[in-house]
Amino acid sequence: MKRNERSIYTRMKKTVTKDTIYCEIPTAWTHEARQAIHELLTITKHMHAERICPNLLTYEPVILYARGQSQEQEAMDIDAVMDTLHISETCWNGYKPA
């Protein structure tokens, strides 16, 4: 995992709480980083990968995670999860507390 990915992972462990309803991670990150954050968000934070969309500020493709009405996903391989997500033009920008 790259240094900037590890620092963001560490920050997410502390800042994503039960009140966080949306969270996003770049699709261009290393597989190791995406997998680690996917497991963090799905297992520990009870969120689910919902869709792939561009970040509002950087236009970088991101995986949007949400806490809500969709069923929880198991912590399966992130590449397999990405294959099942639909691509959306709806943009989100980072953490959105409830």
Short description:
The chain is an alpha+beta fold.
Describe this structure in words.
- The chain is α+β, with helices and mostly antiparallel strands and 98 residues long.
- It has one domain.
- The protein is built from three helices and five strands; from the N terminus they run αβαββαββ.
- It has a five-stranded mixed sheet.
- The chain is globular, with a radius of gyration of 12 Å.
Which SSEs are present, and which pair or pack?
Elements: H1 3-15, E1 20-26, H2 31-44, E2 48-54, E3 61-66, H3 78-84, E4 86-87, E5 96-97
Largest sheet: 5 strands, mixed
Per DSSP E runs of 2 or more residues, the count of β-strands stands at 5
Strand order of the largest sheet: 4-2-3-1-5
Low-confidence stretches: none
- The N- and C-terminal alpha carbons lie at a distance of 30 Å
The average pLDDT is 86
> What fraction of residues sit in β-strands?
15-25%
Structural class: alpha+beta
Order of helices and strands: HEHEEHEE
Given the C-alpha coordinates, what overall shape results?
A: globular
Q: What is the radius of gyration? A: 12 Å
Number of domains: 1
Individual helix count = 3
Helix content: 25-40%
Oligomer: single chain
